[in-house]
């Protein structure tokens, strides 16, 4: 399912227009991204939670040349599925 298919599904399920569903989805994504950017955590009980963790700098290897390269430290987004979501999948 891509973004436009999700918007169509939200609009059909909620009985709202596609424009309203698009605004709601974009608001959700913007708020999740903004919270994570500030270092916060987003938790939806039963569905899952998003958090940010720091990945340390490390040495890597260029697969073409075999040379050692430095990989910079960065923040990564993690998602942990909730019990309801895991139950729906399994």
UniProtKB/TrEMBL annotation:
GO annotation terms (biological process): chromosome condensation
Pfam families per the UniProt record, alphabetical: Bac_DNA_binding
Keywords assigned by UniProt, alphabetized: DNA condensation, DNA-binding
Signal peptide, first to last residue: none
A GO molecular-function descriptor: structural constituent of chromatin
SUPFAM superfamilies linked to this entry: IHF-like DNA-binding proteins
Origin superkingdom: Bacteria
GO cellular component terms, A-Z: cytosol
Family the UniProt entry places it in: Belongs to the bacterial histone-like protein family.
PANTHER family, A to Z: DNA-BINDING PROTEIN HU (PTHR33175), DNA-BINDING PROTEIN HU-BETA (PTHR33175:SF3)
Protein's recorded name: HU family DNA-binding protein
